Amino acid sequence: VGQGIFISDIQEGSSAEKNGLEIGEMILSVNKETLIGVGYDKASQTLRRADGVIQLVLSNPKKKQDTDDNLGSTSANPSLPRTPDHQNLAAETPVKSVKPADPADCEIVPGTRTTIEVNSDNKNLGFHFVGGPNSFIPKGIVVNDIYKNCAVEKDNRLKIGDEIIEINGECIDKADNISTVVTLIKQKTAKTKMVVYRPDTVETLNVNAEVVHKAAKPFGFILRERQCGSGIYISEII
Protein backbone atom coordinates (compact mmCIF):
# COMPACT_ATOMS: atom_id res chain seq x y z
CA VAL A 1 0.00 0.00 0.00
CA GLY A 2 2.93 2.33 0.67
CA GLN A 3 3.33 5.03 3.27
CA GLY A 4 0.24 6.61 4.77
CA ILE A 5 -1.88 7.15 7.87
CA PHE A 6 -3.08 3.88 9.40
CA ILE A 7 -5.54 3.16 12.22
CA SER A 8 -3.41 1.67 15.01
CA ASP A 9 -6.00 1.50 17.79
CA ILE A 10 -9.77 1.79 18.22
CA GLN A 11 -11.30 2.74 21.56
CA GLU A 12 -14.05 0.46 22.83
CA GLY A 13 -17.46 2.09 22.50
CA SER A 14 -16.16 4.91 20.28
CA SER A 15 -17.82 6.17 17.10
CA ALA A 16 -15.05 4.49 15.09
CA GLU A 17 -15.89 1.08 16.58
CA LYS A 18 -19.65 1.57 16.16
CA ASN A 19 -19.18 2.47 12.49
CA GLY A 20 -17.08 -0.60 11.71
CA LEU A 21 -13.60 0.87 11.32
CA GLU A 22 -10.81 -1.67 11.71
CA ILE A 23 -7.23 -1.60 12.96
CA GLY A 24 -4.83 -1.60 10.02
CA GLU A 25 -7.06 0.35 7.66
CA MET A 26 -5.36 3.22 5.83
CA ILE A 27 -7.15 6.59 5.82
CA LEU A 28 -6.92 8.01 2.31
CA SER A 29 -9.05 11.12 2.81
CA VAL A 30 -11.21 12.96 5.34
CA ASN A 31 -14.21 14.85 3.92
CA LYS A 32 -12.54 14.70 0.47
CA GLU A 33 -9.27 16.17 1.84
CA THR A 34 -6.50 13.73 0.93
CA LEU A 35 -4.15 12.33 3.57
CA ILE A 36 -1.94 10.54 1.05
CA GLY A 37 1.66 11.61 1.56
CA VAL A 38 0.97 13.89 4.55
CA GLY A 39 2.66 13.56 7.94
CA TYR A 40 1.13 12.56 11.27
CA ASP A 41 0.78 16.14 12.58
CA LYS A 42 -1.03 17.32 9.44
CA ALA A 43 -3.33 14.30 9.50
CA SER A 44 -4.14 14.87 13.19
CA GLN A 45 -5.02 18.52 12.50
CA THR A 46 -7.29 17.49 9.64
CA LEU A 47 -9.14 14.96 11.81
CA ARG A 48 -9.51 17.42 14.71
CA ARG A 49 -10.98 20.07 12.39
CA ALA A 50 -13.60 17.66 11.07
CA ASP A 51 -17.02 18.17 12.65
CA GLY A 52 -20.46 16.63 12.31
CA VAL A 53 -20.74 13.56 10.06
CA ILE A 54 -17.25 12.77 8.74
CA GLN A 55 -16.71 10.94 5.44
CA LEU A 56 -13.62 8.75 5.40
CA VAL A 57 -12.14 6.99 2.38
CA LEU A 58 -10.31 3.89 3.60
CA SER A 59 -8.13 1.16 2.19
CA ASN A 60 -7.82 -2.19 3.91
CA PRO A 61 -4.66 -4.04 2.75
CA LYS A 62 -5.73 -7.26 4.50
CA LYS A 63 -9.09 -7.38 2.75
CA LYS A 64 -7.35 -6.69 -0.55
CA GLN A 65 -4.99 -9.63 0.02
CA ASP A 66 -7.90 -11.90 0.95
CA THR A 67 -9.69 -10.84 -2.23
CA ASP A 68 -6.59 -11.50 -4.35
CA ASP A 69 -6.31 -14.99 -2.83
CA ASN A 70 -9.96 -15.70 -3.57
CA LEU A 71 -9.60 -14.45 -7.13
CA GLY A 72 -6.61 -16.73 -7.64
CA SER A 73 -8.60 -19.79 -6.61
CA THR A 74 -11.57 -18.65 -8.71
CA SER A 75 -9.54 -18.32 -11.90
CA ALA A 76 -8.39 -21.91 -11.48
CA ASN A 77 -12.00 -23.09 -11.51
CA PRO A 78 -13.59 -22.65 -14.95
CA SER A 79 -17.06 -23.10 -13.45
CA LEU A 80 -16.65 -19.73 -11.67
CA PRO A 81 -16.02 -17.13 -14.39
CA ARG A 82 -13.97 -14.05 -13.54
CA THR A 83 -16.38 -11.21 -14.21
CA PRO A 84 -15.51 -7.51 -14.40
CA ASP A 85 -16.97 -7.14 -10.90
CA HIS A 86 -14.48 -9.70 -9.60
CA GLN A 87 -11.63 -7.93 -11.35
CA ASN A 88 -12.47 -4.57 -9.78
CA LEU A 89 -13.30 -5.86 -6.31
CA ALA A 90 -9.71 -5.71 -5.07
CA ALA A 91 -9.35 -2.10 -6.22
CA GLU A 92 -12.55 -0.89 -4.58
CA THR A 93 -12.04 1.44 -1.64
CA PRO A 94 -14.73 1.54 1.05
CA VAL A 95 -16.24 4.91 1.89
CA LYS A 96 -17.51 5.14 5.45
CA SER A 97 -19.34 7.99 7.14
CA VAL A 98 -18.38 8.29 10.79
CA LYS A 99 -20.44 10.34 13.19
CA PRO A 100 -18.08 11.57 15.92
CA ALA A 101 -18.98 11.56 19.58
CA ASP A 102 -21.08 14.55 20.59
CA PRO A 103 -18.79 16.98 22.50
CA ALA A 104 -21.79 18.05 24.58
CA ASP A 105 -22.09 14.71 26.37
CA CYS A 106 -19.25 12.38 25.30
CA GLU A 107 -17.07 10.77 27.95
CA ILE A 108 -13.39 11.67 28.28
CA VAL A 109 -11.43 8.59 27.22
CA PRO A 110 -8.13 8.06 29.11
CA GLY A 111 -5.03 8.03 26.92
CA THR A 112 -6.61 10.00 24.06
CA ARG A 113 -7.46 13.58 23.21
CA THR A 114 -11.18 14.22 23.64
CA THR A 115 -13.12 17.29 22.52
CA ILE A 116 -15.81 18.33 24.99
CA GLU A 117 -18.23 21.23 25.03
CA VAL A 118 -19.27 22.72 28.37
CA ASN A 119 -22.43 24.76 28.80
CA SER A 120 -20.72 27.75 30.44
CA ASP A 121 -23.81 30.01 30.19
CA ASN A 122 -21.68 33.18 29.89
CA LYS A 123 -20.14 32.54 33.31
CA ASN A 124 -16.72 31.48 34.57
CA LEU A 125 -15.78 27.85 33.96
CA GLY A 126 -14.73 27.48 37.59
CA PHE A 127 -11.46 25.59 37.88
CA HIS A 128 -7.90 26.24 39.07
CA PHE A 129 -4.97 25.11 36.94
CA VAL A 130 -1.21 24.69 36.99
CA GLY A 131 1.17 24.84 34.05
CA GLY A 132 1.07 26.94 30.91
CA PRO A 133 3.77 28.95 29.07
CA ASN A 134 7.21 29.12 30.72
CA SER A 135 6.30 26.39 33.20
CA PHE A 136 7.04 22.70 33.65
CA ILE A 137 3.90 21.93 31.57
CA PRO A 138 4.43 24.23 28.55
CA LYS A 139 2.10 22.50 26.08
CA GLY A 140 -1.04 22.60 28.20
CA ILE A 141 -2.53 23.28 31.59
CA VAL A 142 -3.54 20.73 34.22
CA VAL A 143 -6.73 20.95 36.26
CA ASN A 144 -5.75 21.34 39.92
CA ASP A 145 -9.12 22.10 41.52
CA ILE A 146 -12.77 22.44 40.50
CA TYR A 147 -14.94 25.04 42.20
CA LYS A 148 -18.37 24.30 43.59
CA ASN A 149 -21.53 25.25 41.65
CA CYS A 150 -19.62 26.37 38.55
CA ALA A 151 -19.95 25.25 34.93
CA VAL A 152 -17.23 22.58 35.00
CA GLU A 153 -18.57 20.99 38.19
CA LYS A 154 -22.13 20.95 36.81
CA ASP A 155 -20.85 19.38 33.58
CA ASN A 156 -19.19 16.67 35.72
CA ARG A 157 -16.64 15.45 33.18
CA LEU A 158 -13.37 17.27 33.91
CA LYS A 159 -11.34 15.73 36.73
CA ILE A 160 -8.27 16.83 38.68
CA GLY A 161 -5.21 15.84 36.64
CA ASP A 162 -6.86 16.35 33.23
CA GLU A 163 -4.69 18.28 30.77
CA ILE A 164 -6.38 20.96 28.65
CA ILE A 165 -4.74 21.38 25.24
CA GLU A 166 -7.11 23.83 23.52
CA ILE A 167 -9.86 26.24 24.55
CA ASN A 168 -12.31 27.40 21.87
CA GLY A 169 -9.81 26.56 19.14
CA GLU A 170 -6.89 28.36 20.80
CA CYS A 171 -3.88 26.13 21.54
CA ILE A 172 -2.45 26.62 25.02
CA ASP A 173 1.12 26.14 23.79
CA LYS A 174 0.65 29.06 21.37
CA ALA A 175 -0.10 31.50 24.20
CA ASP A 176 2.58 34.14 24.80
CA ASN A 177 2.26 34.14 28.58
CA ILE A 178 0.18 32.88 31.47
CA SER A 179 -2.05 35.98 31.36
CA THR A 180 -3.22 34.95 27.89
CA VAL A 181 -4.21 31.53 29.25
CA VAL A 182 -6.11 33.12 32.14
CA THR A 183 -7.97 35.31 29.64
CA LEU A 184 -8.95 32.24 27.60
CA ILE A 185 -10.33 30.52 30.69
CA LYS A 186 -12.17 33.57 31.99
CA GLN A 187 -13.82 34.50 28.68
CA LYS A 188 -17.57 34.30 29.15
CA THR A 189 -19.36 32.44 26.37
CA ALA A 190 -22.56 30.43 26.16
CA LYS A 191 -20.58 27.26 25.42
CA THR A 192 -16.88 26.47 25.79
CA LYS A 193 -15.19 23.82 23.66
CA MET A 194 -12.03 22.23 25.03
CA VAL A 195 -9.61 19.55 23.85
CA VAL A 196 -8.76 17.46 26.91
CA TYR A 197 -6.17 14.75 27.49
CA ARG A 198 -6.64 12.42 30.46
CA PRO A 199 -3.59 10.30 31.35
CA ASP A 200 -4.13 6.67 32.26
CA THR A 201 -2.64 7.40 35.69
CA VAL A 202 -1.91 10.69 37.47
CA GLU A 203 1.60 10.66 38.89
CA THR A 204 2.46 12.64 42.03
CA LEU A 205 5.83 13.63 43.46
CA ASN A 206 6.52 14.33 47.12
CA VAL A 207 8.89 17.26 47.61
CA ASN A 208 10.31 18.56 50.89
CA ALA A 209 10.95 22.32 50.80
CA GLU A 210 12.43 24.61 53.43
CA VAL A 211 11.21 28.20 53.48
CA VAL A 212 13.16 30.92 55.28
CA HIS A 213 10.65 33.09 57.11
CA LYS A 214 11.25 36.28 59.03
CA ALA A 215 9.02 37.20 61.95
CA ALA A 216 6.15 39.58 61.14
CA LYS A 217 6.76 39.06 57.41
CA PRO A 218 4.35 37.22 55.09
CA PHE A 219 5.39 33.91 53.58
CA GLY A 220 4.81 35.27 50.09
CA PHE A 221 2.12 32.89 48.94
CA ILE A 222 -1.58 32.24 49.42
CA LEU A 223 -2.93 28.83 50.39
CA ARG A 224 -6.33 27.60 49.28
CA GLU A 225 -8.30 24.62 50.51
CA ARG A 226 -9.17 22.28 47.67
CA GLN A 227 -12.91 22.26 46.95
CA CYS A 228 -12.77 19.08 44.90
CA GLY A 229 -11.24 16.42 47.11
CA SER A 230 -9.00 17.05 50.11
CA GLY A 231 -5.83 19.02 50.81
CA ILE A 232 -4.53 22.54 50.25
CA TYR A 233 -2.43 24.08 47.51
CA ILE A 234 -0.56 27.29 46.71
CA SER A 235 -3.00 29.34 44.66
CA GLU A 236 -0.93 32.49 44.26
CA ILE A 237 2.60 33.83 44.77
CA ILE A 238 2.63 37.38 46.17
Distance between the termini: 59 Å
Low-pLDDT segments, ≥5 res: 73-92
State the CATH superfamily name of the domain at 112-198. PDZ domain
**CATH A-level architecture of the domain at 112-198:** Roll
Q: What is the name of the CATH topology of the domain at 112-198?
A: Pdz3 Domain
Shape: elongated
**Secondary-structure element string:** EHEEHEHHEEEEHEEHEEE
How many separate helices? 6
Overall average pLDDT: 76
Largest sheet: 6 strands, antiparallel
Strand content: 25-35%
Radius of gyration over C-alpha positions, nearest whole angstrom = 25 Å
- Secondary-structure-based class equals alpha+beta
Question: How many β-strand stretches?
Answer: 13
Short description:
Helix content is 21%, strand content 25%. The chain is an alpha+beta fold.
Question: What key attributes describe this structure?
Answer:
alpha+beta, PDZ, 5-stranded antiparallel sheet, 238 residues, 25% strand
